[in-house]
Design a protein that fits this description.
It is found in: Bacterial flagellum basal body. Its main location: other. This is Flagellar hook-basal body complex protein FliE. The chain is built from 3 helices and no strands. Among the domains are: 34 residues; 32 residues. It has 99 residues and is mainly alpha-helical. The chain is elongated.
């Protein structure tokens, strides 16, 4: 399973934000993006923990719960990748505009 690491502050720097300077606007685009990436990462971590617990034979973890959480994790990652692709395409389209 692919996983994403913690949100890279270098991305914020490239967008014109300083990593040392907290984002005060809780509804800003960058804050929403960070929350979405953190949620995807948390979903993957939880799925991995459930899979590991099932492999270790914990009695309160069933196979169907593990499979559902793994599928949720996979779908959320695929959704995140598609959103990123759309953002990159929009950025490229804006950069190709004649001014």
């Amino acid at each position: 399973m692919n996983s994403i690491e913690a949100f890279n502050p270098a991305i914020l720097t490239n967008l014109g934000f300083s990593p040392e300077q907290p984002i005060n606007d809780k509804y800003s685009f960058v804050a929403e993006l960070k929350m979405a990436l953190d949620k995807i990462s948390q979903t993957q971590i939880e799925a991995s923990k459930q899979a590991r617990a099932f492999e270790m034979g914990e009695p309160n973890i069933s196979l169907n719960e593990v499979m559902v959480s793994m599928q949720k994790s996979s779908v959320s990652l695929q959704f995140g990748v598609q959103v990123r692709n759309k953002l990159v395409a929009a950025y490229q389209e804006i950069m190709n505009m004649n001014v």
